[in-house]
Amino acid sequence: MHHAWKCRCCGRQFNTLPLDFACGAPDHWLQIPESERQDRAKLDSDVCIVDGKDIFVRGCLEIPILGQDDHFVWGVWVSVSTTSFDRIVELWNAPVIENEPPKFGWLSNSISLYSGTINLKTNLHLRGGGRRPSIELEPTDHPLALEQRTGISISRVEEIVTNLLLLH
């Protein structure tokens, strides 16, 4: 997003504001010792399977930005059942998906700016056309769920980006 802003930490001026941050893998995969990952898990940009039974799908947890047409997007992983995964694979490249119920899952990433995001209840909404599913959090009082439901200000986006840049 083209947006001039100043980092609250370092004072640098930026002309663009990143609107998405992605987790490269589910936390479950990251907990496997590196020496065992190749034998125990398969990971690509959209799917991770651990020990032949734990299935994770990457999706987009979108947060509306108040007063903007854009969303802030967390690229996160959700664990799903085998039945849900089979249906996701079946419909992944469908050009249009209509009347397909969402797939239940558990958020499988710890997002450092929020406490307790592991195992938040989610619904995956399939979008078709090879696009990653949209992730909807169960409506709770968790700060991330509240932000998804009510939206965030551009100032909050700047705060998130500043904190994420500090972590990297």
Q: How many alpha or pi helices?
A: 5
**Gross geometry:** globular
* N-to-C SSE string, H for helix and E for strand: EEEHHEEEEHEEEHH
Number of domains: 1
* Span between termini: 20 Å
Q: Total strand count, please? A: 10
Helix content: 25-40%
Please give the largest β-sheet.
8 strands, mixed
Question: What percentage of amino acids are in beta strands?
Answer: 25-35%
Radius of gyration: 17 Å
Low-confidence runs of at least 5 consecutive residues = none
Taking all residues together, what is the mean pLDDT? 90
SSE-based structural type: alpha+beta
Pfam families: DUF2199 (PF09965)
Protein name: DUF2199 domain-containing protein
InterPro entries: DUF2199
Quick overview:
With 168 residues, the chain is of the alpha+beta class.
Please give a handful of descriptors for the protein shown.
single chain; DUF2199; eight-stranded mixed beta sheet; 168 residues; DUF2199 domain-containing protein; two-stranded antiparallel ribbon; 32% strand
Describe this structure in words.
- By secondary structure, the protein is an alpha+beta fold.
- It has one domain.
- Helices cover 26% and strands 32% of the residues.
- It is built from five helices and ten strands; from the N terminus they run βββααββββαβββαα.
- The chain has helices at residues 27-30, 34-40, 82-91, 143-150, 154-167; strands spanning 2-6, 13-16, 20-22, 41-43, 47-50, 54-64, 71-80, 103-107, 121-125, 134-137.
- The strands form two sheets. Strands 3, 4, 5, 6, 7, 8, 9 and 10 form an eight-stranded mixed sheet that branches. Strands 1-2 form a two-stranded antiparallel sheet.
- A hairpin with a 6-residue loop joins strand 6 and strand 7.
- It is globular, with a radius of gyration of 17 Å.
- The two termini are 20 Å apart.
- The relative contact order is 0.18.
